[in-house]
């Protein structure tokens, strides 16, 4: 829960190649207290059947930057059917043997105390985008 001295973070993932939530994607959360500070691993979780990660740990007081690391390779390896469907729908080169062109996605963003940051990941085997949600 957010207070005036901390920020909070949530995320979800939508696999845009099939129009469904991405279940079982491992996510690690790290934070730092300034541009020159070292990253501190805070914990990890995985997305549920709705593609949501509801149990990310709280951010420590003084956090100014947050990094979410999404382990997408394992998801696409499990969901190889998704990759084949996406390949069939576009004129793109075959993805690597790992099952994903992007084996991981790292998103780094700045936070302000007292604010909540919902950062959705829109994912497919050939690309991704993120935005600050509500």
Give keywords.
Immunoglobulin-like, 134 residues, 2 helices, elongated, mainly beta, 4-stranded antiparallel beta sheet
What does it look like?
It contains two helices and ten strands. By secondary structure, it is mainly beta. The relative contact order is 0.27. The chain has a single domain, classed as Sandwich (Immunoglobulin-like). The strands form two sheets. Strands 1, 2, 5, 8, 9 and 10 form a six-stranded mixed sheet that branches. A four-stranded antiparallel sheet has the order 4-3-6-7.
Q: Rg, please? A: 16 Å
- Give the class-level CATH name: Mainly Beta
Second rung of CATH, namely the architecture: Sandwich
Q: How helical, in percent, are the residues?
A: 10-25%
**Tally of extended strands?**
10
Order of helices and strands: EEEEEEHHEEEE
Largest sheet: 6 strands, mixed
**Low-confidence regions:** none
* CATH-derived topology: Immunoglobulin-like
Q: Termini distance?
A: 15 Å
Helix count from the secondary structure assignment: 2
Given helix and strand content, the structural type is mainly beta
Let me know the average pLDDT. Answer: 87
Number of structural domains: 1
Question: What's the shape?
Answer: elongated
